[in-house]
Amino acid sequence: MQVKRYRANNMKQAMDAAIRELGSDAVMLGSTKVRRKGFKNLFTKPIIEVQFAYDPSKSPAVVKNNTLNTETPPAPQKEKWYERQSAPVAGTQQLEKRIDSFEKTLTDFMEKFTFIKRDVTYDYTDEVQQLLTKMLEEQVREELAHSLAKQTEQMLRTQQGTNAHEILEHLMHEQMGRSEPILHKKFSQKVILVLGPTGVGKTTSIVKLAADFSVKQRKKVGIINTDTYRIGAQEQLQTYADILGVPLGMVYYPDELEETLASMSDRDIIFVDTAGKRPGDEQHKDDILEFMRVLRPEDILLCLSATTGFASIKEITDTYGFVDDYRVMVTKMDETRHRGAVLNISWYTRKPLAYVTTGQNVPDDIEVVDVDSIVKKIVR
Question: Rounded to two decimals, what is the model's pTM?
Answer without folding.
Answer: 0.69
